[in-house]
Design a protein that fits this description.
Number of helices of chain A: 7
Strand content of chain A: under 5%
Distance between the termini of chain A: 66 Å
CATH architecture of the largest domain in chain D: Sandwich
Number of domains of chain D: 3
Bound molecules: heme-A, dinuclear copper ion, copper (II) ion
Oligomer: heterotetramer
Strand content of chain D: 15-25%
CATH architecture of chain A: Up-down Bundle
Number of strands of chain D: 13
Largest sheet of chain A: none
CATH topology of chain A: Four Helix Bundle (Hemerythrin (Met), subunit A)
Helix content of chain D: 25-40%
Shape of chain A: elongated
Distance between the termini of chain D: 53 Å
Chain lengths: 206, 537, 95, 315
């Protein structure tokens, strides 16, 4: 075994942190994957009820939210290009837009859930037990759990974006070192991908 | 001698970081210290779990009540199972030996994300604490069995929420460890160390890490759903609301079957390191062993349904799961054959770690063969949920992972502490342990075939004889265990110092001083063309 | 990565991808609103998969990264598919 | 391997035991063979006898051999397992049907003529199909002597198992799916009789009715509760089991949750009737919903009166 001298300094390896992020994304995919399995099993067992319940969701809000997430996904992707071109100002703007869009998404979600709650549709509600079939209760149970979990991910993603913006501001993220920005982007795209599946499953297929 | 004493002084054991003493340990991001933190915390939990096992055996020594009420018995096997599975054998080898050895084996200074590594230990502790809270406070110790089957798990009046949440956090810890290892293996190998030069133990850690990453989230979300079911009644697994309890079982086993391979793969890896060293030979069929590791990891993901043959699945699914189960036995068979072939024409040095490794092969075979009985449809129907299953998994989990853990601790002990234990006492401990083990679990096979169900607090008089034998075995086992533990503790404090390589090992970790310095390698080694995984000098 | 200069994706590419994604979204809304029976689910999923591909390949850079990340992603989707199929061996054939 | 008394107790024993023999036979050969080889190597290539190791990298041919041979053998095992299991899913049309109701923690067997028992009486050589119904959590019916086992899942109404008892005698029947506190006491017996004896038993419904009349009301109440399993959850001595104790219950003040709000009620006749027929309507403080299930349809109004008479005496 030969030996060579190498400097002792902390080794900076952006690819390592990128793989780390990807691996984390894989676990997230499987987390939602399990939910999708549950969803498809119950859809298969209760086709009519899922059909009926799906019609009660507002496709328009769903579609608006889809557009919002897609646009925000683009802006954050662009911010990576911007930082690599050295354009700090544009990076910050793009990140800010992403953050605002995320907020708008949540506000929409809030009103959507709120209107359901006011109609007595929420997990464990007596109203549902009395007026809905078992399949419909399942549909809404899954709807709340899955979109709720997705909303939690939006919140985490927003936290990451804020952190990134702070680091950009402190010049810890710059043209040569931008792995945190890249990773926040990856995470945000994951949130987008999950929504890409949630949207048709809950709002479109009747 | 003088030299080894100073190695101990200069090692990670003594060099403090920012803090001294206890604080220096719990804030250290050094992979070796984290490995030892895991060792001590896992050993503690192991000890608690074993005491509970002992208590169960004492209860079962005679029909009727001997020691505790049915309620306590149910809580005992639940806690025993949860501790052993989630806190001992799943983190077990990867967290202790993986952390300690992986960077040493691949020529790195640390894992890829040292701080995340420490964080995952904190998650482990937090999970343990939460589960202990569930045990000691609130409306009663959880009594669902470690499988948390719905709908019982959200009907029981006991303290399920903290237990579920604790298991969830333990899962997080496991995911972070896996993530760390994969990145470490991808990015931190010393220059020149190609994939085909990784030691087997590193390969098995890699396979295990992938399963940890891809299976754990499934049980995570499932447990969350059970918690939500208890809190809000969302109906996902509640038959009264249209849910399907069998779906819960699918999701649970989608994780928990791969989890058994999370446990066994690193155990196999450790044995694959020990046998070459004591036979003074390179590993026979290195490539076949790598392939079989990956095959177990992959196929192991698809056989979960063999735990559900009587649950009410469709016949087609039963057929498919049985077939796949038999396929997953093949890579294990390949491993056994290669280990034994490694001994062929070797120069075998009979030392304590080798005793453990050889007895590992023996008990692993018994556990594996009983797994085949369980994997076959007709026979599973008869022995499912009986003592036979209990015997199977103790043979293969305790026999497999436990023996491998013992082998590993005796093998790497000089590397970890720079000191040697008394091998005379170590061997006495081994023989007691082995005899106790066999007489503890073998009667359970018989009991299962005669039809004694598992999780039974009480039994009919016809099962009495075998239960006495089994209880008796647990005492011998306990004696062996005490001998082993005292021997090791004494050695860690005051055993004679040894040089860097007492066993004449040929893998990279033996090339550094024992115990290793904080930095591991003064210079990052460069692996040459002709250096293989098993021929560093 | 820092030494191997990587391709910087131009902004215009992202805009084009976004337009494609939006088009697919509206197409999927359109196609699911007409009565196709059982095919609706399949159609919606195909559009979702196409969109996912675009996001993965362009937004998430897989197209420009070293191939092994793409391979991992592919294998994971396959594994997930296998799990789904095997689960449905139960539900499909229940009596 | 088994007690010879119970072999051939049902039509499935042969298939299952053949699978056992095949799998365990192959396994023993391998276990003994491989252990012997390993011990021989340890002896022969010990450092004392063989100081210099000879390095061997591996052998592709051997790897193939020891992949293919076990593969063939496990397929053989799979075949026998499959062959012994396959008939279990196909009950004959003329099978006698018995409904098995499982609840925490007893079984009730309901025959086609309405007869209910806690022990399963069966005629010899007649195919029997047990329809399995679980009311609360998952239970499982296991008759070791017959080599049959099937979980009963609440909410799933088409599970069954079938077999032909082929030997007279008494065999154990266990619940093998963990179902809570008294899981280990959820067992009973199968009594297989000659068909004439069975028919006599089957058509005789007088025995139960007669004994009820000579007893006092309290004794009858107690007997009903015993046989339907109330005491699994309720104690008579003041200790708390799964449910509240019966001691001092009658006439006392109870704090209950009903429709989301708490209130205090007196445990009178109506309260107890409701507690048995709609247990979740008025939940006793400190106890969970859904544990006790309604006994509507299982207990008649007369039974309730007897139970109340008995509860009055438990003070
Ligand atoms: C370390 C953990 C571990 C490992 C490695 C295994 C390995 C295997 N297990 Fe086990 N198993 C458990 C842990 C493990 N198991 C646990 C914890 C449970 C119970 C869970 C619970 O319900 O609480 C369980 C339960 C369990 C069941 C369900 C039982 C039931 O509840 O009805 C089944 C059924 O198929 C099974 C099968 C197998 C098989 C076929 C293997 C195979 O991988 C074994 C392969 C090994 C060999 C075959 C031996 C070596 C080979 C040779 C020496 C060569 C010759 C070989 C041939 C000729 C084939 N196991
Ligand atoms: C790694 C896993 C592991 C290990 C090591 C063990 C170890 C033991 N287990 Fe356990 N067991 C499980 C995993 C494990 N078990 C699981 C997963 C279950 C299923 C749970 C469920 O059904 O949900 C189970 C279930 C289980 C049951 C079945 C319960 C039932 O179904 O009714 C029984 C019954 O006897 C049992 C017994 C034992 C015994 C006697 C030991 C023995 O090894 C213990 C021997 C004890 C010692 C060696 C202790 C020595 C120490 C001392 C005596 C103190 C000395 C003091 C000082 C040193 C100061 N276990
Ligand atoms: Cu009923 Cu166990
Ligand atoms: Cu398994």
């Amino acid at each position: 075994m030969e030996k060579t001298h190498q400097a002792h300094h902390e080794h900076y390896d952006p690819e390592a942190s990128k793989i780390g992020m990807w691996l984390f994304i894989f676990t997230e995919l499987l987390l939602f994957g399990a939910m999708f399995i549950i969803y498809s099993v119950y859809r298969y067992l209760n086709p009519e009820a899922f059909h009926l319940a799906g019609e009660e969701l507002n496709t328009l809000i769903g579609a608006i939210n889809t557009v919002i997430l897609l646009v925000s996904s683009m802006t954050i992707a662009m911010s990576t290009s911007a930082i690599r071109k050295g354009n700090i100002w544009l990076t910050q703007q793009l990140l800010a837009i992403t953050l605002v869009l995320a907020l708008v998404f949540l506000v929409n979600k809030y009103f959507e859930w709120g209107s359901k709650f006011s109609h007595g549709i929420f997990p464990g509600s007596e109203y549902m037990l009395a007026n809905y079939s078992q399949g419909e209760i399942l549909f809404f149970g899954l709807y709340f759990v899955m979109t709720g979990l997705h909303a939690v991910h939006i919140l985490v993603g927003m936290g990451l974006i804020i952190w990134t913006m702070i680091e950009v501001r402190q010049k810890k993220i710059h043209q040569e070192k931008y792995d945190l920005l890249e990773n926040s982007g990856l995470y945000w795209h994951l949130v987008d991908i999950i929504w890409i599946f949630l949207f048709p499953l809950f709002y479109l297929i009747h | 001698m003088q030299e080894s004493q100073s190695a101990i002084q200069a090692s990670y054991l003594r060099t403090p970081g920012r803090f001294k003493g206890f604080l220096g340990w719990v804030t250290s991001t050094d992979h070796k210290r984290i490995g030892l933190l895991y060792l001590y915390s896992i050993a503690t939990m192991f000890f608690v779990g074993m005491l509970l096992g002992l208590a169960m055996k004492l209860e079962l020594v005679a029909p009727g009540k001997t020691l505790m009420e049915a309620r306590d018995y149910n809580a005992t096997f639940t806690v025993h199972g949860v501790i052993m599975i989630f806190m001992v054998v799943i983190p077990g080898l990867p967290a202790v030996f993986g952390n300690f050895l992986l960077p040493l084996m691949i020529g790195a200074r640390d894992v890829a994300f040292p701080r995340i590594n420490l964080l995952s230990w904190y998650f482990y502790v937090a999970g343990v604490v939460l589960i202990l809270i569930a045990l000691l406070f609130g409306p009663g110790t959880p009594d669902t069995g470690w499988t948390f089957y719905a709908p019982y798990s959200f009907k029981t009046g006991t303290n399920m929420l903290p237990a579920i949440f604790g298991a969830f956090i333990l899962g997080f810890s496991s995911i972070l460890t896996g993530l760390n290892f994969i990145v470490t293996i991808h990015r931190m190998r010393a220059p020149g160390m190609g994939w085909m030069k990784l030691p087997m133990f590193a390969w098995t850690l890699y396979g295990t890490a992938w399963i940890q990453l891809l299976a754990t989230p499934v049980v995570g979300i499932t447990l969350v759903l059970v918690a939500l079911e208890r809190l809000f009644g969302i109906g996902v697994f509640d038959p009264a609301l249209g849910g399907d309890p069998i779906l819960y079982q699918h999701l649970f086993w989608i994780y928990s079957h791969p989890a058994v391979y999370i446990m066994i793969l690193p155990a196999m890896g450790a044995v694959s390191e020990i046998i070459p060293t004591f036979a003074q030979k390179q590993l026979f069929g290195y490539k076949a062993l790598i392939l079989s590791t990956m095959a177990i990891a992959f196929v192991g993901y698809l056989v979960w349904g063999h735990h559900m043959f009587t649950a009410g699945m469709s016949g087609t699914a039963q057929y498919a799961f049985s077939l796949l189960t038999f396929l997953v036995a093949i890579p294990s068979a390949i491993k056994v054959f290669n280990w034994i072939s490694t001994m062929y024409k070797g120069s075998i040095n009979m030392q304590t770690p080798f005793y453990w490794a050889a007895s590992f092969i023996f008990v692993f075979m018994i556990g594996g063969f009983s797994g085949l009985v369980l994997g076959s449809l007709a026979t599973n129907i008869h022995v499912h949920d009986t003592g036979f299953v209990v015997a199977h998994f103790h043979y293969i989990v305790f026999g497999g992972v436990g023996y491998s853990f013992m082998a590993a601790i005796h093998y790497w002990f000089p590397k970890i502490y720079g000191r040697m234990y008394d091998s005379h006492w170590a061997n006495i401990g081994w023989i007691l342990f082995f005899v106790g083990f066999v007489s503890l679990y073998t009667p359970m096979f018989w009991l299962g075939m005669k039809g004694m169900p598992r999780r039974y607090y009480d039994y009919l008089p016809e099962f009495h004889g075998a239960n006495i034998l089994s209880t008796f075995g647990s005492w011998i086992l306990a004696m062996g265990f005490i001998v082993i533990v005292f021997n090791l503790i004494r050695a860690a404090r005051s055993g004679p110092p040894v040089g860097p390589n007492p066993w004449n090992g040929k893998t990279m970790e033996w090339m550094v001083p024992s115990p290793p310095p904080v930095e591991n390698f003064e210079e990052i080694p460069v692996v040459g063309e002709n250096d293989g995984p098993y021929n560093y000098e | 990565m820092s030494d191997e200069k990587q391709h910087i994706v131009p902004y215009s590419t992202f805009v084009v991808v976004l337009v494609a994604l939006l088009a697919l979204t509206f197409a999927s809304i359109g196609i699911t609103s007409i009565e196709l029976g059982g095919l609706t689910v399949a159609a919606a999923l195909i559009f979702a998969i196409a969109k996912t591909y675009l996001v993965l390949a362009y937004f998430m850079h897989i197209k420009y990264d070293k191939p092994y990340i793409g391979i991992m992603v592919g294998l994971i989707f396959l594994l997930f598919l296998a799990v789904v199929i095997i689960t449905f061996l139960d539900y499909f054939y229940r009596v | 391997m088994y007690n010879t008394e119970i072999t051939q107790a049902s039509n499935f024993v042969k298939g299952v035991d053949t699978a056992f023999l095949v799998i365990m036979g192959i396994s023993f050969v391998f276990l003994l063979g491989l252990t012997a080889v390993m011990l021989y190597f340890i002896y022969r290539y010990n450092r004392k006898r063989h100081p210099k190791p000879i390095q061997i990298e591996g052998s592709t041919r051997l790897e193939i051999v020891w992949t293919v041979i076990p593969l063939v053998l496990v397929m053989v095992m799979f075949y026998y397992g499959w062959a012994g299991w396959k008939p279990m899913g196909k009950p004959p049309k003329d099978a006698m049907e018995v409904t098995v109701i499982g609840r925490m923690w007893n079984f009730i067997f309901e025959y086609e003529n309405g007869r209910k028992t806690d022990t399963l009486y069966l005629p010899k050589d007649q195919a029997v199909k047990l329809n399995l119904v679980a009311l609360d959590v998952i239970h499982s019916v296991y008759i070791p002597a017959f080599r049959v086992k099937q979980d009963m899942v609440p909410g799933k109404d088409n599970t069954f198992m079938w077999f032909i008892p082929q030997r007279e005698g008494t065999f154990e029947l266990y619940c093998t799916e963990y179902c809570g506190l008294n899981h280990s006491y959820m067992f009973n017996y199968v009594k297989v009789m000659e068909s004439e004896a069975f028919n006599t038993w089957y058509s005789d419904t007088t025995a139960v009715a007669a004994s009820a009349e000579i007893e006092s009301a309290t004794a009858a109440g107690r007997r009903i509760m015993q046989s339907i399993g109330c005491f699994a959850c309720h104690s008579l001595d003041g200790s708390k089991l799964v449910g509240p104790t019966f001691k001092g219950l009658y006439g006392s003040e109870r704090t209950v949750t009903s429709g989301g709000s708490k209130k205090v009620v007196t445990a009178d006749d109506e309260y107890i009737r409701k507690a048995i027929f709609e247990p979740d309507a008025e939940l006793v403080e400190g106890f969970g919903r859904g544990l006790m299930l309604s006994y509507r349809g299982q207990l008649s109004e007369d039974d309730i009166l007897l139970i109340i008479e008995y509860l009055k005496t438990v003070q």
